[in-house]
Every structure is written in structure tokens, then in C-alpha cells.
Amino acid sequence: AKARGRNGYRFYAPSMTGEGAERLRLETMLRRSIEKNEIFLNYQPQVEIDSGRLIGVEALVRWNNPELGLVAPVRFIPLAEDTGFINQLGKWVLYESCRQMIRWQEDGLYVPKIAVNLSVKQFERGSIVCMVADILEETGLAPHRLQLELTESVIMNTGDALVFINDLHAIGVGLAIDDFGTGYSSLAYLKQLPVQTLKIDRSFIKDIPADSDDEAIAIAIIQLGKSLNMSVIAEGVETADQAAFLLRHGCNQAQGYFYSRPELAQAVLERWLGAGEG
Ligand code: C2E
Ligand code: CA
Ligand code: CA
Ligand code: CA
């Protein structure tokens, strides 16, 4: 029943068990994943293109279940959101991310900042601001070294988004808009938000230089960020050509397989320790 997918993820054919039964099984297993130590984080470096310097990492959650193998976030994040488990998971991810920043520092590696993804469901609960503040205090990570990544859907679909976002800004954490350009945020909204960073979505990067429309969109986002005094980072950079294109058009920050895949904390340490002024 199992077959190894392209990324080493294993898939189950829905016909084997029925989609409903499969989902229920996954849900039950997911609920126990944290206590069973099946959840861990990978970290993907964010790099300054011209110098190659490490400017940060993005924390990406992983679920390794003994029966299911490595389950892709696109499969279990939506499930976690539907069942409410995302609150527990999101808290775990945030705590672990902040702790890891301190551990790297203790091991001699200074990682300037860590980016952590937040789900829209975490905002619906309302206590997000306290949770972030508590975790920062408990771990001792300076607020400006944490950057929360919000998608446009978080901003547009949360009634009190502006309030939460302003409160998060007030405690000193950085904010980024993830997958920028794929959602439906209005540009007027953008102007009001205390957001410092736009992340150009991978879908606009992947066909550069073949697709001139994507090139035009990437350039437009870079210019928009500049005129709003925001920094712009491109995600999904896989080739030297793409990096050169970005640099040429004024975007000096990138994340993607060209620089590094998401990897374990130890691998980040080994690769970047002593790799320059970092
Ligand atoms: P995202 O936030 O847009 O994260 C970037 C995704 O692109 C990651 O997939 C990463 O592994 C992948 N990626 C990075 N560079 C490249 C590249 O050069 N080429 C290609 N083809 N892919 C690249 P991943 O880790 O599977 O995560 C998928 C999505 O799951 C994330 O998209 C994010 O929306 C969500 N996610 C991951 N971790 C968390 C988390 O802790 N909390 C929440 N709420 N969502 C998470
Ligand atoms: Ca992200
Ligand atoms: Ca993306
Ligand atoms: Ca995303």
C-alpha cells in the first residue's frame, strides 16, 4: 500500500481504506504526534545574495510517524487546522524555534533571526499575542530576532487581524507576508500594516528566466516593497540565474534549494559555524 513519493514522503492510496477512514486514522495519529516525539523542525537558511551571508532561517515543521513515514506539511497542516490541533502544534513550533536560536548561540553560531509560520486558526483563538510574549520571555530570545510569517489570508480573513498584528508589532517581533502575490490582500491594507518584509512566492520565481510574465511580477513586487520601505526576500530560489536576476533587480535576500534545503539544526550548525562573519 505504501509507495515512496518524490520527496521521500510516502503516500497511501485512498482506495485502500476509504478517504474518510484514512483521514480519521491520520487525525488520531496526528493528535498524539507531539507527545510521541514524532514532530521536529527543519530549518532553511535565508541568505544575503551578494555576500552569501546567513541572515536567518525559516522553521519548517516535520512529522515522522513510524507507520506513515514522513508526512508532508501540506497534508497534515490543513488537518491540524480543521481539528484545532494547530494551536498546540503552533505553540510547540514557536517554543522549539526560539529555544533553538538560544542553543545555536550557546554552540557559537549566531543566527540573526528565525522566521516562524503562523496559521490563520492561531489568530482566531485570540491569545496569540500572549503566547508569543510568554515564549519569548521563557526562552530569553530577543523579540526582534523572531519574525512571524503571515499569509495574505490571515490578514484578510481575521476580523481583528489589524489589532493582533499591531500588538505583535508592539512587543517587538518582526512580521513578514508569506507567499506574497498569491492571495488577495489589497495594497491599501499593506500600507497600514507594521510589516517589514514581503516574501515573493515561489510560483513567481520558479520559471525565471523562461517566463517573462513571472519576471515582470517579481520586479513589480520588489519595487512595491522598496517604495513601502519594506525588505523583500524571494523564496524557492533554485538556480544561480534566479539569484542573479533578483540581485540585478534590487532584491538581495533569498531562500531556496540553490542555497540549502531545509535541514536539521545540527546540519545548520555544522555548515555555518565559522563560515564568515555570519
Ligand atoms: P511555505 O511557508 O511557503 O514554506 C516554503 C516551502 O517551500 C517549504 O515546504 C520548503 O521546504 C519549500 N521550499 C523551499 N525552498 C524551495 C525550493 O527551492 N524549491 C522547492 N520546490 N521548494 C522549496 P514545506 O516544508 O513542505 O512546507 C510547506 C508549507 O507548509 C509551508 O509553505 C507552510 O505554509 C506550511 N508550514 C510548514 N511548517 C509550518 C509551521 O510550522 N506552521 C504552519 N502554520 N505552517 C507550516
Ligand atoms: Ca513560510
Ligand atoms: Ca510559499
Ligand atoms: Ca505558505
TrEMBL record:
Residue ranges that the Swiss-Prot or TrEMBL entry lists as coiled coil: none
Domain EAL: 23-276
Organism domain of life: Bacteria
Protein name in the entry: Sensor domain-containing diguanylate cyclase
Native organism: Massilia psychrophila
Origin organism lineage: Bacteria, Pseudomonadati, Pseudomonadota, Betaproteobacteria, Burkholderiales
Stretch of the intact protein here: 760 to 1037 of 1047
